[in-house]
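Deliverable D2.4 — example input (structure tokens):
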């Protein structure tokens, strides 16, 4: 089971103090494991901002991107493509994060600090990668944080067509157990690309209510691994 870290010394503001028109909730703190887990449990996630240079921002979108597990749209061509990949879990976490943060990607935000922080969460059993392999090569994947019935997706990448989508299909399969109706697959914001896959926007209040239920659930068996 995941190792619970030392509690964070930081206190995030409660939801009744969040600006209802602003996705940004707080600035500062750190990326220690206890801080990250406290944030995800509160409905927040970190991302660097332009405020004060390198200040850390903590976000809770007013319109949260969520993929209902029964709403994933898998086309015939994607199903055919999926048969040509092998899905693996947590066999190349650091490589997946590095590819997601490749400097050639536009709007990159995955800094070395983020890579180190999520690598530590992975070794403690909280962060996971779902990978699409072909012919012994990593072709695409995604990573995120699993806390109870929440999977907070952070980023995805591909070097071969459909590989990141196939990894997403693999993740949904892993989450689709007897608790699937109450699990939350969070993707932060809705983008046009994610919308084509079935991602929908939920109000902040709706997301926080579903999160409270999800946190009471066990992690899916496919993501449970010993701490490293």
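Example output (designed residues):
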């Amino acid at each position: 089971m995941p190792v619970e870290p030392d509690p964070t010394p930081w206190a995030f503001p409660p939801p009744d103090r969040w600006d209802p028109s602003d996705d940004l909730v707080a600035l500062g703190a750190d990326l220690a494991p206890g801080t990250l887990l406290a944030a995800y449990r509160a409905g927040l996630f970190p991302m660097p901002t332009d405020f004060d240079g390198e200040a850390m921002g903590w976000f809770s979108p007013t319109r949260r991107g969520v993929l209902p597990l029964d709403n994933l749209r898998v086309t015939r061509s994607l199903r055919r493509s999926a048969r040509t990949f092998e899905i693996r879990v947590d066999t190349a976490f650091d490589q997946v994060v590095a590819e997601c943060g490749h400097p050639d990607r536009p709007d990159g935000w995955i800094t070395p600090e983020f890579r180190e922080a999520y690598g530590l969460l992975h070794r403690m059993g909280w962060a996971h990668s779902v990978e699409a392999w072909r012919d012994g090569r990593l072709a695409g994947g995604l990573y995120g944080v699993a806390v109870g019935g929440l999977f907070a997706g952070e980023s995805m990448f591909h070097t071969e067509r459909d590989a990141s989508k196939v990894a997403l299909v693999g993740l949904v399969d892993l989450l689709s157990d007897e608790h699937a109706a109450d699990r939350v697959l969070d993707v932060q914001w809705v983008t046009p690309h994610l919308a084509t896959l079935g991602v929908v926007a939920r109000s902040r209040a709706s997301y926080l209510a579903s999160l409270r239920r999800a946190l009471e659930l066990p992690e899916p068996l496919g993501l449970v691994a010993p701490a490293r």
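The longest strand covers residues 137-147.
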